[in-house]
Design brief:
alpha+beta, 4 helices
Length: 120
């Protein structure tokens, strides 16, 4: 398997997720690049001071980034993340989520949709 090389500079956005059930915010950075004339998400970073989030977030970010860097269709990874469940569901911006990972999956999908809309 060959991964697409990471350019020296990428553009992206960092989202702060302040969730009522967590003591600290989670910061999600999504970087993208142009591939064949289309902006596509290239990598994901997840960071928090909350030690519980640090147990899973580096692995999640690295695996998602590796899948995205393979190129090709990546919508399936957003859906897979959105289907993740945990013991604690929660509300964020008036919508219920089954896990932090499911929220990140939706965030990735909406970021990709914005990239496609901005390109038009």
């Amino acid at each position: 398997m060959t991964l697409i090389d990471r350019p020296q500079v990428l553009h992206g956005a960092t989202y702060e997720l302040k969730l009522d059930h967590l003591p600290d915010s989670i910061f999600v950075t999504i970087n993208h690049k142009e591939v064949d004339g289309e902006l596509k998400i290239h990598e994901l970073f997840i960071n928090s001071w909350d030690s519980e989030q640090l147990k899973w977030s580096p692995l999640c970010a690295r695996l998602v980034s590796a899948v995205l860097r393979q190129g090709g269709a990546s919508d399936f990874i957003y859906r897979e993340l959105q289907d993740m469940f945990s013991a604690e569901s929660f509300f964020y911006k008036s919508k219920q989520y089954s896990s932090v990972v499911s929220l990140i999956g939706e965030l990735l999908e909406s970021h990709q949709h914005r990239l496609l809309e901005d390109k038009r």
